[in-house]
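For the sake of transparency, this paper describes our internal protein records without simplification. Because each token names a local backbone shape, the row as a whole describes the fold. One such record is reproduced below, unchanged from the form in which we store it.
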Amino acid sequence: MRQGRPAQTGPPASVDRYLLPDERSVITVRMHPAALAGPLVLACGGLVAARKLSGRSPRPDIVWGAYLLVPLYFLRRLAAWPVSYLTITDKRMMLIGGLFIRTAAAMPLERVTGLTLQRTVPGRLFGYGTLIVTSASRRQAFRKVRYLPYPEQLYLEISGLLWPQEQSDDEGMTAQDSAGPFQQE
């Protein structure tokens, strides 16, 4: 009988190497596969265009050679997708990604002053969203995190990490108090 590997409980190794010794990962998510849709459409559209142009061109080998760059771009993005993560620790937000050049951008949670969740129509259809992070500092590590899966759930979990006591204060309010300026008369 073959024994299976135990399930991984912590962050992936590609994320774990960027954590500080006293830091723990709270949320780690890989970008939504919809991030590959743009390069895939570009590769398919380029194939159609190269096919039409090669029929009209006296040198079709040049057309197909130029087109070769488009699927290579798609393959590079496809290979980089599995190692692109958003990680929220108890101290900071990190955006980690890149295939040949690994980039790890981090922002301390204390500096985050606001979160905005943006959902386009395709995002609502396919289940992804964009998280816009605002900071009091002019030097931000990242501003927009595109193609996040489960965007509403992530937004609520990140908000709970950023402003924990505000949520507990809101729980003690009555329905009349929480209506604020939009009270029914």
Observations:
- The radius of gyration is 22 Å.
- The mean pLDDT is 85.
